[in-house]
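Each field is set out as follows.
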Amino acid sequence: MRRASHGLQEITGETLVFKGIEEQKLRYAPIDGKVVLLQGPQTIPLLFSEGHDYIIDYELGTIKRTVQSRIPDWQEHPMYGKAGFDHRDYPDYSNARFTCTIDYSTMAVGKAEAIEEKIKPLLLSQLHERISRQREVTYVVFGDSISTGAEASIKELAYHNRFAAALRNRYPHTEIRVEMMALGGEGSRRGLERIEDIIALQPELVTIGYGMNDQNRQPDGTNSTPLEEFEQNISEMVSRIRQHTSAQIIVITPCLPNPNWIFASENVTDYAEAIRRIGYTSGVVVADVQRLWLDELAAGKTHESLLLNNINHPNDYGHRLYYSALEGLLE
């Protein structure tokens, strides 16, 4: 979470997974002299001490464990250093025991845009008109396990609930009713088969979040859903929802899976690009989570610091990235 104040911003809840005494990159450079709070995983909610448990290089924006640190060491994870791992071979493959959170102050940073700017003004006006003049609005959440809120520590931190809360805050006189229609493990093929269930709800707002399961690498190297079929499936969802409802539609690009996971395909970014093409050609807004995710990785964040299950489910900070891609629609 970023809160601007007097030229500064407060970063709260950024996630970190530490490896031995290796330096880990913070998303932004902290300000020396400001209070930094580093807390342990939910399983061991300790407040760690700078100098004793960790050392920060404020100029480089890095942090590392000390030799005597109480911070959990990800080198003890059973999948540490393993490429091409199959999570089914491990009784516990989660990063929950190793994921720490940090709060710090930084200088004001620019906010990345994760929506198509050419389409944003039109959707903003339409969405505002629909919500502001109705006493009740139905928001349908459609997609796979990430859209169900998988791995969020509490339901309020799942990205769709964060977005619904933002809508309620902006439109306090309108009841925002969330209909959860996402299913864990589902791909776009099965989602398209259920599209009549979405239409039957006659929603005012629909978010569509597929792609993670569709990209999965099969034993023969192909994708679970061929790219061309995936694009057709999402396009058909958009077309049919538009044809039979007056809902505003937002399509969401997926985050990235752990590339060391055996089911992570080499063309995962192509699925996000297909969603962007649908946005451009169909005139629906794209909440581009994958672009924000790539920004995090480029800034030095690691896959394990973003994925709580270490394979394809975002942690609370990752769900916040999903929410950030949607939040821009309200500004």
User: Anything to note?
Assistant: The radius of gyration is 20 Å. The chain has a mean pLDDT of 92.
